Amino acid sequence: MSTFVLLTITGLGLAALYFLVASGLSLIYGLMDVLNFAHGAFLTLGGYAAWLVTDATGSFTLGLVCAVIGCAALAALMETALLRRLYGSHVPQVLLTVGLLLAVTALVRQVFGSDARQLATPAWMNEVTEILGAPIPNNRFLLIVVAVVVYLAMSAFLARTRYGLIIRAGVENRPMVTALGIDVRRAFTLVFAIGGGLAALAGALTGAINNVVAPDQGTSLLIFAFIVVIIGGLGSFKGSAVAAVLVGLLQQYANFYGLVGAGDLIVVLLLAAVLLIRPQGLLGRASA
């Protein structure tokens, strides 16, 4: 019983991490029809920004806040200076965002080296709390709480604010929103800033869990984030949350009860099944 509890809670922690990354990706694609591979760069930059500020000030919380704000600003700058010229051109978008991911990863490796850097975190994060006999690392609870707070805050933002309504309407029917005379460019920039901030938050928390940050941490997380977005439904914020829980729990259970690496195989099989049975994703809408 204790093993099952441990696997479930750590699986939910992994799901929370996937959700933080995938939610921004889902919004960006749903509103702007952009496959943003540069999202992985903000995962890496968020981790290193948190490490730099924490190392200089001794405050992990301040490092987390600075990472989110800094990467949100960089994401907004990237959208206005680079991507805005390429809307509707999918191949140039992919080439640009993949190029940015590779360039940022290489730059981080050049500046800070290829070796992982240790990220100092508060002592309580490295302690454990026993639940039904299972010792659960406190940092997993932090991940779950942060993901729930982000989900509730984003749900309220999308449902109750003017920009949130524009974003939701744009996801459903962007040409109609434009025809009504609403300037969606500001909403585009805001969505990119939110996505960059969430990616930085996930990158910093990844460093907190592993106690280290590394140049390639963004690439590995990005792969599973895209899988979560596709399974949940492109453009569906709620779908990303549901898919993240499924993927996180399946990975944990399969890796423990199955063979080594079975978790990744199960996730790929789930992706294949969803694409065959419901190509628009669990909560996505089929195109006409």
TrEMBL record:
<feature type="transmembrane region" description="Helical">
    <location>
        <begin position="256"/>
        <end position="277"/>
    </location>
</feature>
<feature type="transmembrane region" description="Helical">
    <location>
        <begin position="94"/>
        <end position="112"/>
    </location>
</feature>
<dbReference type="Pfam" id="PF02653">
    <property type="entry name" value="BPD_transp_2"/>
</dbReference>
<keyword id="KW-0472">Membrane</keyword>
<keyword id="KW-0813">Transport</keyword>
<feature type="transmembrane region" description="Helical">
    <location>
        <begin position="34"/>
        <end position="54"/>
    </location>
</feature>
<dbReference type="InterPro" id="IPR052157">
    <property type="entry name" value="BCAA_transport_permease"/>
</dbReference>
<keyword id="KW-1003">Cell membrane</keyword>
<keyword id="KW-0812">Transmembrane</keyword>
<feature type="transmembrane region" description="Helical">
    <location>
        <begin position="141"/>
        <end position="159"/>
    </location>
</feature>
<keyword id="KW-1133">Transmembrane helix</keyword>
<feature type="transmembrane region" description="Helical">
    <location>
        <begin position="221"/>
        <end position="249"/>
    </location>
</feature>
<keyword id="KW-0029">Amino-acid transport</keyword>
<dbReference type="InterPro" id="IPR001851">
    <property type="entry name" value="ABC_transp_permease"/>
</dbReference>
<feature type="transmembrane region" description="Helical">
    <location>
        <begin position="6"/>
        <end position="27"/>
    </location>
</feature>
<protein>
    <submittedName>
        <fullName>Branched-chain amino acid transport system permease protein</fullName>
    </submittedName>
</protein>
<feature type="transmembrane region" description="Helical">
    <location>
        <begin position="60"/>
        <end position="82"/>
    </location>
</feature>
<comment type="similarity">
    <text>Belongs to the binding-protein-dependent transport system permease family. LivHM subfamily.</text>
</comment>
<feature type="transmembrane region" description="Helical">
    <location>
        <begin position="187"/>
        <end position="209"/>
    </location>
</feature>
